[in-house]
Amino acid sequence: MEKYRKKLVSLIKKQIDGDIDLAVPPDSTFGDYALACFPFAKQLKKDPVGIANDLKEKIKAPSFVEKIETKGPYLNFFLDKSVLAKEIIDSVLKEKEKYGQQSLGSEKVMIEFSQANTHKAFHIGHVRGTSLGESLARILSFVGKDVLRVNYQGDTGMHVAKWIWCYQKYHAKEKPKKDEAWIASIYVDAIKRLAENEELQKEVDEINRLLDSGEDKKLLSLWKETRQDSLDAFENIYQELNTSFDKYFFESKVEKRGKEISLELVKKKIAEISEGATIIDMKAHNLGVWVLLRSDGTVLYSAKDVALAEQKFEKYKVDTSIYVVGKEQEHHFSQLFKTLELMKFKQAKKCRYVPVSLVKLPWGKMSSRTGDNILFSTFKEELVDYAAEEIKKRGEIDEKELKRRSDAIAIASLKYSMLRQDPNKVIVFDKTEAMRFEGETGPYLLYSYARARSILRKAGKFSHSISAPSEKEVALIKTLDAFSERVSKAASDLDPSAIANYSFRLAQQFNEFYGACKVIGSEEQDFRLTLVEAFCIVLKNSLHLLGIETIEKM
RNA sequence: GGGCCCGUAGCAUAGUCUGGAUAGUGCGGUUGGCUUCGGACCAAUUGACCGGGGUUCAAAUCCUCGCGGGCUCACCA
Asked: Stretch A446-465: mean pLDDT, rounded?
C-alpha cells in the first residue's frame, strides 16, 4: 500500500509547487489517504475548501485510484480495493513466515536482559524484563541485525553470603533443591533473621569475606553447588518462557577486571580517590559522583559493569550494546555510558539503555527480600490450572494435550499482559485482571488464531483466489498490510508494545470479519479461505515476535 | 531541593517523537445475538485528554508555568 501512497504523493507534487504529505483519515469511510489543504491557503491566498475543490478537478486519478472526493478542506483518495487485496494477500502468501521482514542494517547487536540474581526469587517483575528482552531480540533479528542475547547474573555479593549463612545455620538438614521457590524462601528467612538480631550480620560478613578470599574450600563448594541449583532453576523458567541466551556473563567473572580497570582509571586521571573510595567525579557532566570501589577496596556493581562492557566491545566485537534493565538504574547507566565515552570506546555512543518499569503490587513494590512478591512459578501454576479448567469445560481431552495447551495459554496470557503497554510505565499487578482470558489478552489472540485454523482444517483443500473485498474484508486486508510498518517502529523505538497492540487489532479485525462473513459454504468461499490463511500467517508472525507461540486448537 | 519519567471515562490503556476531520480500544455497567465455520466471540449503549498561559489556520500532541504520582541523587544491585 505504501508504494501507492508514494505514487500519489509524487503525482500531487507535480500539481502543486511544494512539499506535501498524505495522511490516513481517522475513518476509512473518508478514504484511504487524505490531503489537508490548510497549508496552501496562505501561499495561494485562497480558502482551503476552494483549494481542495480545485485540486479535485486538476488531478487525474491514476488507475489504482477508484475515486477522489473532497470533504471540506480535505481531498480524499479512495484506492481500488481489488488491486489492494491482490497486492497484499499475494505478498503474505508468498513470503509466509518472512512476511514483514526487512533490512534495517546488519550490525552486530548484543542485547543484555533478564539479569536474575542467583539465590533469590524470580518474580513476575523479572518476567516483564525477560519478555521484553526476548521480544526485542526477535524483532531486531527480524529486521536484519546480527543479534547476540546475553544474560548477566549476580552470582556473588552480599545477598549470596546471606543466603549461605542462613542455609548453613538454620536449614542445613534440608538438601539443596533446584527449586526456585525453595531457594527464594531461604533468602527471605535470612533477611528476617538478620532484621531480628543485628549482631548476626557479623557472621554474614565473615562468610562474605571467606567467600571472597576462597580460603574455605567447604564453603566454596557449597556456593558452587547452590549457585548451580539456582541457575538450573532459572533455566527451567527460561524454557517455559521460550527464552534462550547465547552467552551468560557472571558478576563473579568480572570482579577482578573491574578492580583493575578502576585502578587504571585512577592512573589516567579519569577516576580519583575520595573519602577512601575510588570514584569518578561526573559533576561536570551533570551526573554526580560514581563510586567504583568501596573504601575497603572491594569492587562495586559500577566497576563490574565497566569490565563487562569492555569485554563486550573487545572480545565480542559488538557494534551496539543494548541493556534491558530496571528503570531505577537509569542514572547508573548514564554514568556507565559516560565513563565508556571517557575511556574512548568508539561504541560508547551506540550503547542503548531500555528502561523496564516496575511491576508493583497494589500496596507497593515487590520485594525478594521480604518475600512480598508473586513468584513466576506459583503464578504460572495458577494460570495453567485456570486455563485447564476452561479447556475442559469445552470438551474431552487427553492429559498430555491438555497440559500442552494450558501451558501455552498461561504463558501467552502472562507475556501479553507484560508486553502490551509502554515499558516505561509502571504496571500495577492486579491478579483478577491478570487471570482474565477475555478482551485484550493473550488467550484472545490465541483463540482467534485457533478459530481461523479450525476453519482451514474444516475446509480442506482449496485454491487461492482473490475477488472484490467487502468492507470487513478490506479492513482486515489493510491491517495485514500494516504489519511491516509496525515492525520497523518497534525496532527503532525498541518497544514491542507497538507489535502487541497491532496483534490485538489484527485479531479483533479477524473476529469482526468472522462475525460478519460466513466462509465455508459461501459464494466467496475460496477468496475468504485465502484471506483466513493470510491472516493466520501474519498473526503467527506477529505473535512470534512477542515470544508467544500459537496453538492449533484450544 | 536537583535530574529523569508518568498523568487520557469508574478501572486499565492506544494515540504524543512526525500538530489536522467525529480522541481509538479493553474491563466494568446496561441491552441484544448460537437451526452459520469454536460464545475465550460478535453487535449496540454508557463514559475521558490533570490545570493555567503561549505558539498555530489547527494542540491530547509543540513551548511554558503549576499540580499530582513514581524513580533517582557516594561506597546495594
From this structure: 96
Question: Which domains does chain A possess?
Answer: 2-79 (3.30.1360.70), 113-360 (3.40.50.620), 376-424+434-546 (1.10.730.10)
Q: Which of A375, A467, A391 is nearest to A127 (CA)?
A: A375
CA distance A523 to A510: 19
Spacing of A38 CA from B52 C1' in Å: 29
pLDDT tens, position by position, A50-65: 999 999 999 888 999 9
A485 CA to B40 C1' distance (Å): 29
Q: Name the band, by pLDDT with cuts 50, 70 and 90, for residue A362.
A: confident
At A372, give phi and psi (nearest 5°). -85, 80
Identify nearest nucleotide to residue A325 by CA to C1′ distance: B77
Question: Which bases in strand B are touched by protein, i.e. have an atom under 7 Å from a CB?
Answer: 2-6, 12-15, 17-18, 20-23, 25-28, 33, 36-43, 57-58, 70-77
A131-166 pLDDT tens trace: 999 999 999 999 999 999 999 999 988 899 999 999
As a whole number of angstroms, the distance between CA A118 and CA A223 comes to: 10
Average pLDDT over residues A451-460: 96
CA of A516 to C1' of B43 (A): 10
Extract the C-alpha cell encoding A449. Answer: 488464531
Using a 7 Å CB cutoff, list residues 370-389 of A near strand B. 387
Q: Within 7 Å: CB of A72 and strand B?
A: yes
Helix/strand/coil for A489 = helix
Whether ipTM > 0.90 holds is yes
Q: What is the pLDDT of residue A368?
A: 86
